[in-house]
């Protein structure tokens, strides 16, 4: 991988980390427990709980992706970064630009059903 491409990916990863960190902060604020409100009927309360469950899922996925991005950032200067864990071929630069934390090439990802 060319140094220019590596620097572009580093910048992309840093930006993604910053955005996810902000998103996680916002989601954390929305994760406060829902108390039963006398003014809400049961349907409205259930709707609020469903919304909170969705927020919890978004929060958990954001935390997982943040960890993967941080890991990718630490590995970007190693020979390990950008190499498929399955076939050990280089992951395309276009794929890394879209998903910089990619561990698998497209062929292996499809083959593994990921």
Task: Describe this structure as you would to a colleague.
The protein is built from four helices and no strands. The mean pLDDT is 91. The chain is mainly α and 114 residues long. Helix 1 packs antiparallel against helix 2. The chain starts with a helix and ends with a helix. The protein has a single domain, classed as Four Helix Bundle (Hemerythrin (Met), subunit A) (Up-down Bundle). It is 66% helix and 0% strand.
* Radius of gyration of CA atoms, rounded to a whole number: 19 Å
Give the C-level CATH assignment.
Answer: Mainly Alpha
Beta-strand share of residues: under 5%
Which series of helices and strands comes N to C? Answer: HHHH
Which topology does CATH recognise? Four Helix Bundle (Hemerythrin (Met), subunit A)
Query: Which of globular, elongated, flat, extended, rod-shaped describes the shape?
Result: elongated
Helix content, binned percent: 55-70%
Number of strand elements: 0
Q: N- to C-terminal separation?
A: 25 Å
The CATH architecture term is Up-down Bundle
Q: Low-confidence segments, ≥5 residues, pLDDT <50?
A: none
Number of helices: 4
Largest sheet, strands/sense/barrel? none
């Amino acid at each position: 991988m060319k140094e220019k491409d590596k620097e572009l990916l580093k910048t992309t990863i840093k930006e993604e980390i910053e955005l996810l960190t902000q998103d996680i902060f916002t989601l954390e604020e929305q994760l406060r427990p829902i108390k039963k409100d006398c003014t809400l009927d049961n349907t409205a309360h259930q709707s609020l709980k469903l919304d909170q469950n969705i927020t919890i899922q978004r929060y958990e996925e954001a935390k997982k992706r943040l960890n993967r991005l941080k890991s990718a950032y630490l590995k970007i200067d190693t020979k390990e970064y950008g190499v498929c864990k399955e076939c050990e071929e280089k992951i395309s630069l276009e794929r890394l630009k879209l998903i910089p934390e990619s561990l698998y090439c497209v062929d292996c990802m499809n083959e593994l059903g990921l």
